């Protein structure tokens, strides 16, 4: 693996539009809504006052498994995920667009 090649790899920003239905499906997929009396969970799985679960932005902004591409020189079978960040500045709306910037 060529560290400098990987470090300088350019990723174009990834724009992804998502709907209210996408937000509900994501929330259900991570286990929200299992307790129909928990109002904190209902904000993510019911249309009234709906929000998107914040970590959904990570999935929507993901550029795909680029480390498996031949030009990386990475032995992807031995790859260990070391770091990932998500800055949340405000509640995530139930529908909208995210821009993923990978570096």
Kindly describe this structure.
With 103 residues, this protein is α+β, with helices and mostly antiparallel strands. It has 4 helices and 2 strands, in the order αβαααβ. The chain has helices at 3-7, 20-29, 39-45, 56-60; strands at 14-18, 96-100. The mean pLDDT is 90.
**What's the overall geometry?**
elongated
* Strands in their spatial order, largest beta sheet: 1-2
Q: How much beta, percentage-wise?
A: 5-15%
From the alpha carbons, calculate the radius of gyration and give it in angstroms.
Answer: 17 Å
What gap, in angstroms, lies between the N and C termini? 17 Å
SSE arrangement, N to C? HEHHHE
Helix fraction by DSSP (H/I, runs of at least 4)? 25-40%
Low-confidence stretches: none
Biggest beta sheet summary: 2 strands, antiparallel
How many alpha or pi helices?
Answer: 4
Secondary structure layout:
Blueprint: H1 3-7, E1 14-18, H2 20-29, H3 39-45, H4 56-60, E2 96-100
Antiparallel strand pairs: 1-2
Name a few traits of the molecule.
103 residues; alpha+beta; two-stranded antiparallel ribbon; 4 helices; 2 strands; elongated
Short description:
With 103 residues, the protein is of the alpha+beta class. It has helices at residues 3-7, 20-29, 39-45, 56-60; strands at 14-18, 96-100.
